[in-house]
Specification:
The chain has 370 residues and is of the alpha+beta class. It folds into 3 domains: 148 residues, no CATH class; 69 residues, no CATH class; 44 residues. The protein has 11 helices and 5 strands. Strands 1-2-5-3-4 form a 5-stranded mixed beta barrel. A hairpin with a 2-residue loop joins strand 1 and strand 2. Keywords: Endoplasmic reticulum, Membrane, Protein transport, Translocation, Transmembrane, Transmembrane helix, Transport. One of its GO terms (cellular component) is endoplasmic reticulum membrane. This is Translocation protein SEC62. Belongs to the SEC62 family.
């Protein structure tokens, strides 16, 4: 591998330095700080490592899983964010390559090389992010196909450690929410509704302040400027005072245009706003739904279920009694019909026997007459 003139001028690390680097990787203790106190280069390295725009990957280095980055990505990131070098105070004017060499001297990073240096079958170039690395012999910074692994343990804030124990408890509580007491459910409901109302109110107020200041004075004023920032820390998230507006002053034509649009939007909302009767109906409907949720209690629910069960039992008994009475009446009607049929059969038999007797008497009388 060819070396540039700038790289030749830099001092090389001794093999003992390489051994110390490997020993630092296998140990879990962070590197020692300078005798003067806080190590500014370590603070710089931690800020760069924690930034979301800084691209890095994970790989295996001497049976140790490490996080590494490319040399060209480090140079591009520092050039894009020169404010990170302000942490170095007296060394903030150093070039990016010199800052990287300082990180190498302090064993904060270790230069690595890919293990597989030959093309695999069917591949046209080597992997951009290799999965296996080894320590490079010359510990100096370079942008040309150079990889650097972080050699210090990433520290976690205390609140993250506490949250790691709290999150399982919160997850279990969310899963058991259906069996919570009714009073606890009301507390959760009011808390969530109040938090959402606070968030939306804060966003609306800061937007109104920004729009008013931008249209009237031509200044960009965002209170709580980091409230929607993804990379902001917890302390930066609730920073109240806005940053100084360093952008150009907006043109009066743009301010006039947006002011006209805002006035038309307000007039449109006012024209299509519901009247008092519609608002009252909607409020009553919503309040009834909320009242049903808030006024519900297990005792009332159980009493209502018992009343429904008693109503069903009474209705069943009434239907059974009515059915029994109907059956007895039907049986009585049938028995009466059978008795009437029997009587009619007896009458018919009597009439038939009477007619036969009269015919016999007539025959006897005719025989005697002869």
């Amino acid at each position: 591998m060819t070396k540039s003139g700038a790289e030749k001028k830099r001092t090389r690390r001794t093999p003992g330095g390489v051994q110390n680097s490997s020993r630092d990787l296998n140990s879990d203790t962070p590197p020692k700080k300078q005798a003067s106190g806080k190590d500014l280069f370590q603070v710089f390295a931690e800020k760069v490592r924690d930034h979301k725009e800084f691209e890095s990957r994970w790989a295996v280095l001497q049976e140790t899983r490490v996080e590494y980055f490319r040399g060209k990505d480090f140079v591009n990131f520092v050039r894009k964010h020169p404010e990170f070098k302000e942490v170095l105070e007296s060394d903030k004017d150093l070039a990016t390559e010199d800052v990287a060499d300082a990180l190498l001297r302090k064993n904060l990073v270790v230069r690595c090389d890919r293990v597989v240096k030959t093309l695999r079958p069917g591949k046209k170039k080597l992997s951009t992010w290799p999965a296996h690395l080894e320590i490079f012999s010359d510990q100096m910074f370079s942008e040309n196909d150079a990889f650097f692994a972080w050699a210090f343990v990433k520290r976690r804030p205390l609140w993250q450690t506490i949250l790691s124990f709290v999150w399982p408890v919160v997850t279990l509580a969310i899963c058991l929410f259906p069996v919570f007491p009714h009073r606890c459910k009301l507390i959760v409901l009011y808390s969530c509704a109040g938090l959402l109302l606070l968030i939306f109110t804060l966003l609306l107020v800061r937007s109104l302040i920004f729009g008013s200041m931008w249209i009237l004075l031509g200044k960009r004023v965002w209170f709580f400027p980091n409230i929607l920032a993804e990379e902001a820390t917890l302390s930066e998230l609730f920073q109240f005072w806005p940053k100084k507006d360093e952008e150009e002053r907006p043109k009066w034509t743009a301010r006039l245009f947006f002011s006209v649009v805002a006035v038309l939007f307000i007039l449109l909302l006012r024209h299509h706003a519901p009247d008092e009767a519609a608002r009252a109906r909607y409020q009553k409907r919503v309040s009834n739904i909320i009242d049903d949720v808030l006024e519900w209690s297990p005792k009332l629910a159980l009493s209502g279920m018992m009343e429904k069960q008693e109503t069903v039992v009474n209705a069943t008994e009434t239907n059974t009694t009515d059915g029994t009475q109907g059956t007895s009446e039907e049986q009585g009607v049938k028995s009466d019909a059978v008795i009437e049929e029997t009587k009619s059969d007896l009458n018919i038999d009597k009439e038939t026997s009477g007619e036969e007797a009269s015919e016999n008497q007539e025959d006897v009388h005719h025989h005697n007459h002869i």
